[in-house]
Task: inverse folding
C-alpha cells in the first residue's frame, strides 16, 4: 500500500473512530452506539456482517445487542431460540472463548465446525461462512465481543486481528464512557428531583412526627389497641381495623364510623404474606384484593412487626392512590406503637401460658406426688382435671419447653374459646400437647375433627411446614394415666413416620394390634418372636437388590401391591417383584396365603414398635 493510499486509509480510520466518539458525546442510546460500532467495524474491515454481543443481566448468555448487515430473523434466532450460553457448554463457541479468555478466536469454515452445529442452519440462511470473535476488553472486565463475518471462506490474518483488537479497545472505551454518562445523567436527575421535593418532604415529615408522638403518648397512657385504632381512624377519616395474622380482629371502627367487614378481614388472614423485609422497610403499605360474594374488594394494609415477624395488620378501605401522603405515613407510623402495645399484652399472655405449660409437663412427666397441687393449680386457671381428657399430640420443637410461640398460643386460644372447661396446651418432649376435656359419653374416635384442627396449629402463619401426623390417645381418667397416654401418642406418631404413612390423624383404635402393642410398657419379650420370623432377612446383601425388611413392610402395608410399594420406596416395580420372590424363598412362605401374611404382619407390627422405641433411645434387651 503506497503512502497516499496508507494516509487515506488512516484518515478513514480516524474519522470513523471520531464519529463513534461524537456519538458518545451526543448521548445516543447504548443500542444506537452498539449498532454504530458494528457498522464501523464492517465498513473499515470490509466484512459482510458484524455484531456486538454482551452478557444478559444474569450473566448466563451472550445477546446480540448491536449489528450491521444481520437480518432480524437471524438476531431473533440467536437471542431467543438458540442463545449463546456462557456455562455448561461442552464445545465453546468462538464468542464464548473470546469473552472468557480475552483473545480473538476465529472459524474459517462455519459449516464444518462442531461447536457451530446448533447455529449452522441460521448461518446458512444469513449467508456467511467464516467468522472471528474479538473481546471488548475494558479495565478489569470483558464487556462483550465484536463478531465479524464473511460470506466466502476467509482466514483472518494476524494483521486483521491486530486491527480488530485496536478497534475493539476503542469500542470498549466508548461503551464504558456511554454507560458512565448515562449513570451520571440519572444521578443528576435524581438529585434534582430530591432537591425540588425537599421542602415538601420536610413538612410531611414534621406532620408525621407529630402523629407518631400522639400515638406513642396514647400507648404510654394505656390507651390500648382501641385507643390507637380510634386515633388512626380520626387521622385518616376513614374506617380502620387491626387484626392478628390468625384472623382475630382486635379493633374495628366504632361509633359513627363505618366498620370494615369483619368476615372479609378474617378470610384475608389466609392470603399469602408478602416478604415485607425484602422491600427494605418494615412499614410497607400494600393493596390486597379480598374475595367477596359480589367479586372482590380492595383494602390497604400495613404490617405490625416484632423482631422482623408480622404479628398483626392495620387495615383501611380503598387503594393506596386514594390515601394522602400523610395518611400513608400515619398508617406506617402507627405500626410501632401498636407493636409495643401487642408486645405488652403478649408478655402477660405468655405468663399465663407458662403456668399452664408447667401443669401439663408435670402431668406428662408422671410427677404423681404433686397430684393434689396440680389439680388445684389447674382449677385456678380454669381447667377441670377431674374430667376424662383426650391426649392430642403433634410433633413440634419449640425453643423452650416452658414457653410456646405467641402465634401458636393465640391460634389455640381462638380454637378453645368455645370449650368449657378449658383445654390445656403446652409442649413436652418435642410435641405440642393438648389435653382436651371429654364430657361423657364423648368417645375418642369422635374427636378426629378437633385433632385435625390441632394438627394445623404448629403450621400457623407460615412459621413451619404443616405437621404430618397428630395422635389421639386416652381418655385419661386419673392423674397417673397421663404419662402412659402421652408415651402411646408419641409412639403412634413416630411409628407413622417410620412407616412413611400418609399424613393425618391417628387414633389407636385404627391401629389394631399395633395400638395394643404401643400401650405395653415393655415389648422386649416379643423381640425373640420377631427375630425368629424376620431374622433371615436381616443379613440381606444390599448389592443383591433393595433392603428386604423395609420392602416386606411396605408390601404388607400396601396390600402386596408391587406398584404402590415401588412408588413409596422409589424403586422399579420389577425390583419389588424380585425382592418379594427372594423374601418368600428366604422365609419359606407364600405371602399370598392368608396364614403366612398374617404371621408376617404380626411380626412386622412387633418389629416396628421395637424399632420405634430403639430410635427414641430405649434399647430393647
Result:
Amino acid at each position: 500500500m503506497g503512502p497516499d493510499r496508507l494516509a487515506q486509509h488512516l484518515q478513514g480510520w480516524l474519522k470513523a473512530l471520531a464519529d463513534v466518539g461524537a456519538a458518545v458525546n451526543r448521548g445516543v442510546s447504548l443500542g444506537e452506539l452498539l449498532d454504530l460500532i458494528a457498522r464501523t467495524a464492517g465498513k473499515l474491515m470490509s466484512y459482510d456482517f458484524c455484531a456486538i454481543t454482551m452478557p444478559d443481566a444474569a450473566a448466563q448468555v451472550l445477546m446480540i445487542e448491536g449489528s450491521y448487515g444481520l437480518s432480524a430473523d437471524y438476531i431473533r434466532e440467536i437471542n431467543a431460540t438458540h442463545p449463546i450460553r456462557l456455562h455448561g457448554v461442552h464445545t465453546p463457541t468462538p464468542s464464548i472463548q473470546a469473552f472468557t479468555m480475552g483473545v480473538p478466536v476465529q472459524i474459517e469454515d462455519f459449516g464444518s465446525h462442531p461447536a457451530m452445529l446448533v447455529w449452522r442452519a441460521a448461518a446458512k440462511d444469513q449467508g456467511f461462512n467464516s467468522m472471528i470473535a474479538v473481546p471488548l476488553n475494558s479495565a478489569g472486565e470483558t464487556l462483550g465481543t465484536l463478531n465479524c463475518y464473511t460470506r466466502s471462506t476467509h482466514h483472518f490474518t494476524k494483521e486483521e486481528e491486530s486491527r480488530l483488537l485496536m478497534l475493539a479497545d476503542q469500542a470498549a472505551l466508548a461503551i464504558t464512557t456511554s454507560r458512565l454518562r448515562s449513570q451520571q445523567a440519572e444521578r443528576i436527575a435524581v438529585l434534582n428531583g430530591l432537591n425540588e421535593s425537599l421542602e415538601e418532604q420536610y413538612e410531611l415529615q414534621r406532620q408525621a412526627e407529630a402523629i407518631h408522638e400522639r400515638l406513642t403518648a396514647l400507648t404510654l397512657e394505656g390507651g390500648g389497641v382501641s385507643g390507637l385504632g380510634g386515633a388512626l381512624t380520626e387521622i385518616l377519616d376513614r374506617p380502620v381495623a387491626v387484626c392478628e395474622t390468625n384472623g382475630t380482629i382486635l379493633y374495628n371502627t366504632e361509633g359513627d364510623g363505618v366498620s370494615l367487614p369483619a368476615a372479609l378481614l378474617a378470610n384475608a388472614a389466609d392470603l399469602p404474606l408478602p416478604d415485607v423485609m425484602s422491600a427494605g422497610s418494615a412499614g410497607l403499605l400494600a393493596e390486597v384484593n379480598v374475595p367477596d360474594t359480589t367479586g372482590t374488594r380492595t383494602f390497604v394494609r400495613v404490617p405490625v412487626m416484632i423482631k422482623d415477624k408480622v404479628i398483626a395488620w392495620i387495615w383501611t378501605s380503598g387503594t393506596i392512590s386514594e390515601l394522602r401522603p400523610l395518611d400513608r405515613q400515619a398508617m406506617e407510623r402507627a405500626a410501632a406503637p401498636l407493636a409495643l402495645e401487642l408486645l405488652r399484652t403478649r408478655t402477660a399472655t405468655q405468663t399465663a401460658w407458662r403456668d399452664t405449660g408447667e401443669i401439663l409437663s408435670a402431668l406428662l412427666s408422671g410427677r404423681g406426688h404433686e397430684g393434689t397441687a396440680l389439680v388445684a393449680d389447674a382449677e385456678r386457671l380454669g381447667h377441670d382435671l377431674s374430667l376424662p381428657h383426650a391426649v392430642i399430640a403433634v410433633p413440634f420443637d419449640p425453643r423452650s419447653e416452658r414457653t410456646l410461640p405467641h402465634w401458636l398460643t393465640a391460634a389455640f386460644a381462638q380454637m378453645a374459646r368455645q370449650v368449657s372447661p378449658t383445654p390445656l396446651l403446652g409442649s413436652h418432649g418435642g410435641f405440642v400437647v393438648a389435653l382436651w376435656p371429654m364430657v361423657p359419653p364423648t368417645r375418642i374416635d369422635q374427636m378426629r375433627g378437633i385433632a385435625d384442627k390441632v394438627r394445623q396449629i404448629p403450621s400457623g402463619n407460615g412459621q413451619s411446614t404443616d405437621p404430618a401426623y397428630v395422635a389421639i390417645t386416652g381418655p385419661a381418667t386419673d392423674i397417673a394415666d397421663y404419662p402412659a397416654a402421652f408415651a402411646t401418642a408419641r409412639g403412634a406418631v413416630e411409628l407413622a413416620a417410620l412407616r412413611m404413612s400418609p399424613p393425618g390423624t391417628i387414633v389407636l383404635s385404627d391401629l389394631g394390634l399395633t395400638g395394643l402393642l404401643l400401650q405395653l410398657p415393655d415389648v422386649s419379650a416379643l423381640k425373640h418372636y420377631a427375630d425368629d420370623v424376620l431374622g433371615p432377612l436381616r443379613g440381606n446383601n444390599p448389592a443383591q437388590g433393595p433392603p428386604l425388611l423395609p420392602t416386606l413392610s411396605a408390601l404388607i402395608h400396601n396390600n402386596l401391591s408391587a406398584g404402590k410399594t415401588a412408588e413409596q420406596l422409589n424403586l422399579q416395580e420389577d425390583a419389588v417383584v424380585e425382592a418379594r420372590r427372594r423374601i418368600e424363598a428366604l422365609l419359606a412362605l407364600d405371602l399370598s396365603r392368608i396364614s403366612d401374611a398374617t404371621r408376617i404382619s404380626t411380626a412386622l407390627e412387633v418389629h416396628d414398635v421395637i424399632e420405634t422405641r430403639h430410635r427414641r433411645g430405649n434399647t430393647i434387651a
Q: What stands out?
A: The two ends are 100 Å apart (CA to CA). The chain has four domains: 3-187, 202-346, 366-514, 524-615.
